Amino acid sequence: MNRPLLNLSLYLLSTICIQSQTLEKWTLTDGRSFEGQVKSVTPGMVIFARASGPDAPLEIAQLSELSQRRLMVVLGLTIPTTPNRAIPPPAPTAPPPSAPPMNTTVRDPGAIDATDISMIDSKFGLRCMVIGKISKITTLGSTGHKKINFENSEFYLFIKKRILEANPEWKPETMANKRIQVEGEVAKYQDQLQIQITAPNQINVVEP
After folding, report:
1. CA distance 177 to 134
2. Does the pLDDT at position 20 exceed 60?
3. Is 110 in the same domain as 54?
4. Domain span including residue 16
5. Do 69 and 127 fall within a single domain?
6. CA–CA separation, 108 and 54 (whole Å)
């Protein structure tokens, strides 16, 4: 309730006398209530005629907001109001989709340790199984390709951006620091051995 605006309206109207009005229930800001009819109003004050007893002068500010609004109606006054619009609570944000769990497997007895570069090199051009712990996963600049390095090894895995885009639910970063087993054809790039991943199912986390 804009009380200063209410008082200003009353100042402009000077003293208002109410000749006809029935008894009504009025409530104060402290919760108390009484019955009376508005007899006259001056800026900041209202005088109530009561069913019995003397008239009761009262400061308008002592009336509850609801009673002040009722007083405005009785006086035939209207003031611009801005409807109270409840601000809706923010819409709950859906949790980001979690990456599907990596496939787990037991170690293949024929898997080559990622640190055994000479053995991996002997499989150049062939399909084989390599096992090792991932030490680092790097995004290669603006290309979006991924390079996955193993601990104590120059051998690495390479994943092209188009493979990642074709499998948006697959997040290679979830493999960080995990021991994995990978199957694929051994190739070389700039004299470094690698396996190029073309599908997520080529990589499995090795069960402890």
Report:
1. 5
2. no
3. no
4. 3-75
5. no
6. 102
